[in-house]
Structures are given as structure tokens and as C-alpha cells.
């Protein structure tokens, strides 16, 4: 299963599982700094990432969260927005929740959590 999970654990916790790693590097840079990177050959160009977000505590259900993401809200907390510092990106905010290790999941390759479109473009 190739995926990366990020969520709250009093601050932030992440895990990465990769099925076909050909390169990887992990460095402790001192002073609490850390960097890691790698190449996982289990995701081919043209295949899909699936990015999934657990419904935040503020919302009753997935439908209410979808509405907030699509339409935003008066406080501008929720909703998908254009990144003004990078014209090639969009973003939305997710509040860090305590003891919720998989709030944000990025899956690829043959992970059971990849949701490929029914009709690929």
C-alpha cells in the first residue's frame, strides 16, 4: 500500500508507506529539523493520486463539508481558494485535530484507497 498520512498528535504526526522504493534519503538536520525524500515506482505517470480528508470535527457529515469546500463560508475558513503566491496551485485549510493521525491521506499505486475516476480524461 503506497500512501502518506498526516494528522494531529498533540502537534503533527506523519507516516509514509511505499511499496516499490528505488531511492530514499532521510536526514536529521539537528535543532529539531528533519528532511526525507524518495522515489516510489508503484505510481506510474498518468495514474492517479487520491487525496482524501477526514471530515473535520466542525461538520456534522461529509455532505456539509463538501458544501463548505465548494462554496466557502463567510469567515473564509473553509473553501478551496487560489494560492495568490503561486498561480499554479489551489489550496484549502484543515484544522489540526488532536490524536487524529490520518486526517489527510495521499494514496497512489495499488493502494486500496486510490479512487480512480470512472472515466479517465
The best one-word shape is: globular
Specify the biggest β-sheet.
4 strands, antiparallel
**Percent range of helical residues:** under 10%
Determine the N-to-C terminus distance: 25 Å
Number of individual domains = 2
Radius of gyration: 17 Å
Mean pLDDT: 91
- Low-pLDDT residue spans: none
**Which structural class is indicated by helix and strand composition?**
mainly beta
List the total number of helices. 1
Query: What share of residues are in beta strands?
Result: 35-45%
Order of helices and strands: EEEEEHEEE
Number-wise, the strands total 8
Strand order of the largest sheet: 2-1-8-5
Can you walk through the features of this model?
With 121 residues, this protein is mainly beta. The chain contains one helix and eight strands. The chain has one helix spanning 62-71, and strands at 2-8, 13-17, 21-30, 33-40, 50-53, 81-82, 90-91, 100-108. The protein is globular and about 45 Å long.
Amino acid at each position: 500500500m503506497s500512501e502518506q498520512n498526516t494528522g494531529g498528535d498533540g502537534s503533527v504526526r506523519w507516516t509514509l508507506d511505499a511499496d516499490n522504493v528505488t531511492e530514499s534519503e532521510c536526514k536529521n538536520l539537528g535543532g529539531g529539523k528533519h528532511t526525507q525524500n524518495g522515489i516510489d515506482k508503484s505510481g506510474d505517470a498518468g495514474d492517479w493520486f487520491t487525496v482524501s480528508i477526514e471530515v473535520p470535527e466542525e461538520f456534522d457529515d461529509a455532505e456539509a463539508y463538501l458544501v463548505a469546500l465548494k462554496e466557502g463560508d463567510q469567515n473564509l475558513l473553509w473553501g478551496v481558494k487560489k494560492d495568490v503566491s503561486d498561480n499554479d496551485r489551489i489550496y484549502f485549510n484543515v484544522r489540526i485535530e488532536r490524536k487524529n493521525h490520518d486526517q489527510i491521506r495521499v494514496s497512489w499505486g495499488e493502494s486500496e484507497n486510490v479512487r480512480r475516476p470512472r472515466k479517465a480524461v
